[in-house]
């Protein structure tokens, strides 16, 4: 029996996934979650074979929960689902060696077969996603700079970002200044706009 953790914040979509998996005699959904904060505790509790995670859930854009699952539960394979892929997210997921990465408009049977493939130790990445990610221009920002800019784009101020990343406010200001300079932006919000337009955030 393949045990699955399912994380999807849209109730109707989660219900459709549950119904789909419920038709399969070899798949057992041990946790279905609508809150991204519940993913890691549930993964620790159930230790599923496969964690199916909607990366578009609030709070999941930086893939941090996926990294924590890989670090703490290496036996759990991760399958990332998304509606709106961004090259940097796909690239990070590939570098992180996620088990699978699929668009949510993939055929239902593809989701089921991918879960089985992951449980068997294989890796399944949507070919179009992989090719597009590697062909997209590499952002001139470091992962840390992207992380700081992502938090700034979400409306967090310098002290909040510093507290979240365990850095000093001065260090965060330096990161934001470097980002603005690298992107030839006029302001911090202009840097956010440039990064969003380029698909980096």
From TrEMBL:
Residues 3-119 form the Response regulatory domain. GO terms for biological process: phosphorelay signal transduction system; regulation of DNA-templated transcription. It holds the Pfam family Response_reg. One of its GO terms (molecular function) is DNA binding. The modification 4-aspartylphosphate is found at residue 54. The keyword Phosphoprotein applies. It comes from Streptomyces purpureus. Keywords: DNA-binding, Phosphoprotein. This is DNA-binding response regulator. InterPro entries: CheY-like_superfamily, Sig_transdc_resp-reg_C-effctor, Sig_transdc_resp-reg_receiver, Tscrpt_reg_LuxR_C, WalR-like. Residues 134-199 form the HTH luxR-type domain. SUPFAM superfamilies: C-terminal effector domain of the bipartite response regulators (SSF46894), CheY-like (SSF52172). The gene is desR. The keyword Lipoprotein does not apply.
